[in-house]
Design brief:
alpha+beta; 4 domains; 24% strand; rod-shaped; 44% helix; 28 helices; binds magnesium ion; Beta-Lactamase; binds ligand C2E; Alpha-Beta Plaits; 717 residues; five-stranded antiparallel beta sheet
């Protein structure tokens, strides 16, 4: 090894041995010659690596066999030119300086560091450096032990006490904390991590994290660990793991563990399970752009989408249609069956609408029972019309809503980009106006927007405003149209028909303002006024000797939402009119929903003794069962059948059938819209009981009606 005589070498070995803690031989024998000869061999077989250097000189004078095995260099490589800097990268000039100062005062210095093998691996090392004199020279002898147990290494680094405390903190942290060495082998996993594994986490210590041993879900994570090892730069990201068939999102922080030279010697990964938070975030984001009931995109989302399409389409001739869809009579379902059924109906409507759409069309819930459909890239109105037809048609089939089977229909209004504008709100407003037109024309249909509709809407808006004050300003009046018994030629009753004496527009017919009043709910107040007024008038006529039944029209809205029973009771009580002289005309649609509330309202009204007739019979939902159940008194055959009674065989057949059916149920029949004597005779022939129509009289003012009654009594026989 050194240029020394054999004796000198022996003596040096002896000195070395003296400095090795826990040397396996008794030191007292070591200076005996026989033992001294064996010393190099003994040193080579130690567990510890031995490095000998002159004090203050980094080159190695001697290394034992263990050192060559530990670090992978040959003894020659060590001795011929290698020094401490080559195996300990942290051994910077500053560290050397500090070490030399310290070693002047202390004969033995113990510390932990890392040694780099020839292959580049870092090994944690526990070192004891001894200083000793031999033949006038000062030597440093480093005895190095590999720290196999990482825990003890940490203990060495930080001291046992601190280490235990740290471990406690780390183990009880709610975060998942893992420590790997630079080869991605598990050094430590805190307790939290156990819940993701079926095997005890202790069994994973020392294992390299690979997809093969840890599973596919680790693939991205391993990639990230490797990249941190490679670059030495920490990262932070969200990682989705799949553990036991459940997805967990972890917010990961991967931090490199660096030595004094900046080499990566390990990595610490801290993961926080943010699954709940992510779910909540997703939900919040979803709700911001979706409707929670149908899970369809909401208005905001649709606006963004449409604006985006418009923005992109500035230059070409793209055409887009906005369909504004409203469920017909939705309020009735809500009122009759309750909101839960209403909600279910909306969901079913949504899915039926969706079934009719192409892949790139968009359906969204606008509000309440209103939906929007955006038809992208439609180049002709025919295509739009055929899609709308298909949608309307698809509602022919009733919807199964829980235990109910409900018939439903939709009204659709259409506006087209760019014809009707390039602004989402304006396009929707116009589609909405067109939808209202579709409702007005009888519902269950679609309508394209036309510019004249704008004016109508403005008119409608003014009308609604004016109507609010019309009752207080006494602008409403009732006209009465006589109902005449065909056989006896006697006035049996009168239908009260409302008119609006508008201060500037003159007399307005009910067909113009009743739908607006119904849509706005104003009809409830107006209807109440009509009932009270009609009762009062009937009573006055009775006092004058005109003993007739007065009939009033009851809107479906009023019937479902107003407290009809109370109002009728009060009107009868205040006027003093006997209930059998008061008749309520309901339409078939009011009977459509056979619910507890409706049944009780009708039964209570009947119990008061008032009469009940079905107006416009034959145009709506005609069912024998409700006629029986609700003890209806009279059917008013709709004027559309009467108009062509003489020419149209089919109409005549219907009228005859209705009269026969009514007779079998013990109901009276009255024909509306009788304009001539021939029709009157035909009805007489079919056995109809009463008529109402221009043939005898138009609806008239109170005074005119009184005059007519007097004239009729004396002249018609
Ligand atoms: P309705 O209840 O079916 O009333 C009959 C309508 O037919 C009346 O129209 C009447 O003037 C008209 N009419 C009667 N005989 C003939 C005839 O021979 N030929 C023709 N062409 N028409 C005839 P009006 O007064 O314009 O009322 C229209 C509708 O407005 C009524 O239809 C009713 O549904 C509604 N209405 C009228 N007054 C009220 C009311 O006070 N409350 C409610 N909710 N609706 C009302
Ligand atoms: Mg009527
Ligand atoms: Mg009618």
């Amino acid at each position: 090894m050194l240029e020394m005589s054999q004796t000198q070498q022996k003596l040096l070995f002896n000195a070395i041995v003296q400095k090795i803690p826990d040397f396996p031989f008794m030191k007292c024998y070591a200076n005996k010659t026989s033992m001294a000869c064996a010393l190099p061999m003994v040193l080579d077989n130690l567990n510890e690596a031995i490095f000998l250097m002159y004090q203050g000189n980094p080159s190695f004078l001697y290394v034992n066999e263990t050192a060559t095995k530990m670090l992978g260099y040959s003894r020659e490589e060590f001795i011929n030119g290698m020094g401490i800097f080559d195996i300990d990268p942290s051994w910077t000039p500053e560290v050397t300086q500090r070490f030399l100062i310290k070693s002047k005062d202390e004969k033995m210095i113990r510390f932990t560091t890392r040694h780099k093998t020839k292959e580049g691996h870092n090994i944690p090392i526990d070192i004891t450096v001894n200083r000793f004199y031999f033949e006038g020279k000062s030597y440093h002898l480093a005895v190095c032990r590999e720290i196999v147990d990482r825990k003890s290494f940490v203990e060495e680094m930080f001291g046992k006490e601190t280490c235990f405390k740290f471990k406690d903190v780390v183990d009880n942290s709610p975060n998942n904390i893992a420590w790997y060495d630079a080869e991605c082998r598990v050094v430590y996993l805190n307790k939290q991590i156990q819940k993701y594994f079926d095997v005890p986490i202790e069994s994973l210590i020392g294992k390299e994290v690979t997809v093969a041993s840890f599973g596919e879900t680790y693939a991205e994570y391993i990639e990230k660990l490797r990249s941190v090892i490679k670059t030495g730069i920490g990262i932070e990201y969200d990682q989705t793991f799949r553990f036991k068939d459940e997805e967990h999102v972890h917010h990961m922080q991967i931090v490199p563990e660096l030595d004094k030279l900046g080499n990566v010697i390990g990595i610490i990964a801290i993961g926080r399970d943010v699954s709940m938070q992510k779910k909540a975030e997703k939900k919040i984001e979803f709700l911001a752009y979706h409707d929670h009931l149908t899970e369809l995109p909401n208005r905001i989302r649709t606006k963004l989408e449409v604006e985006n399409v418009i923005h992109k389409a500035q230059d070409d001739s793209m055409q887009m249609a906005i369909l504004f869809i409203d469920v017909d009579d939705f309020q009735t379902v809500n009122d009759s069956f309750g909101h839960a059924v209403g909600d279910m109906l909306l969901k079913s409507v949504a899915s039926r609408l969706q079934d009719n759409l192409r892949d790139n069309d968009m359906l969204s819930r606008h509000s309440g029972d209103e939906f929007l459909i955006i038809l992208n890239n439609v180049h002709s109105n025919d295509v739009i019309a055929s899609i709308c037809e298909r949608i309307v048609e698809s509602f022919q089939k009733p919807l199964n809503i829980g235990t109910h089977i409900l018939s439903s229909s939709v009204s659709i209004g259409i506006s087209i980009y760019p014809i009707e504008g390039d602004d989402f709100d304006a396009l929707v407003r116009k589609a909405d106006i067109a939808m209202h037109k579709a409702k007005e024309l009888g519902k269950n249909m679609f309508c394209f927007f036309e510019s004249s509709m704008n004016e109508e809407t403005i008119e409608c808006f003014h009308a609604l405003n004016d109507m609010k004050n019309a009752i207080a300003n006494q602008e409403f009046i009732l006209h009465y149209q006589p109902q005449i018994d065909i056989k006896n030629k006697k006035i049996m009753g009168a239908e009260a028909l409302i008119r609006w004496m508008h201060p500037t527009q003159g007399l307005i017919a009910p067909s113009k303002f009743i739908p607006i009043a119904e849509n706005s709910g104003l009809i409830i107040k107006i209807g109440e006024w009509v009932i009270k007024e009609a009762c009062k008038q009937a009573m006055l006529w009775h006092q004058q000797g005109i003993e007739i039944v007065v009939a009033v029209n009851i809107s479906t809205v009023q019937f479902k939402r107003g407290n009809l029973e109370e109002i009728v009771k009060e009107a009868l009580a205040t006027s003093g009119l006997s209930p059998e002289f008061f008749e309520l005309e309901l339409t078939e649609s009011a009977m459509m929903y056979d619910t507890e509330k409706i049944r009780t309202t009708i039964q209570n009204l009947k119990a008061l003794g008032v009469k009940l007739s079905i107006d416009d019979f034959g145009t709506g939902y005609s069912s024998l069962s409700y006629l029986k159940k609700f003890a209806v008194d009279k059917l008013k055959i709709d004027q559309s059948f009467i108009k062509n009674l003489l020419e149209n065989q089919e109409d005549a057949a219907i009228v005859k059938a209705v009269i026969q059916m009514a007779k079998s149920l013990n109901l009276k029949t009255i024909a509306e819209g009788v304009e001539d004597g021939e029709t009157l005779d035909a009805l007489h022939g079919h056995g109809c009981d009463e008529v109402q129509g221009f043939h005898f009289a138009r609806p008239m003012s109170i005074e005119a009606f009184e005059g007519f009654a007097l004239y009729f009594k004396h002249n018609i026989h």
